[in-house]
Amino acid sequence: MAKHILIVEDEPNIIESLTFLLKRAGFTVTSEQDGAHAMSRILDLKPDLVVLDVMLPNRSGFDILRDIRNLAASPQVLMLTAKGQARDRQTAEEIGVTRFMTKPFANSEIIDTVKEMLT
Question: Mean pLDDT across the chain, nearest whole number?
């Protein structure tokens, strides 16, 4: 069965390109644009991996990451951000992010990272 990835991202172009790339690589992909709805989607879908943006409408990616890490069986989290500041990476690592990448990223880089995380 294909691994399931939930993309939590507010930019439609990024959702579209990530969905295309990840589906082409053989993954099942769903998405959520609103930070306030992210946790209910995670609880309903139980994805293997969450691709999580830091800056989201209605709720921060850091807050969502904290909630994910409080789950009994939490998925891996690949945090994506346009904010590449060291303190953002440090905050994400302190909360328990699996991997952290900055935008923009190369298509091959994201696919390789996701494959590595899910094998």
Answer: 94
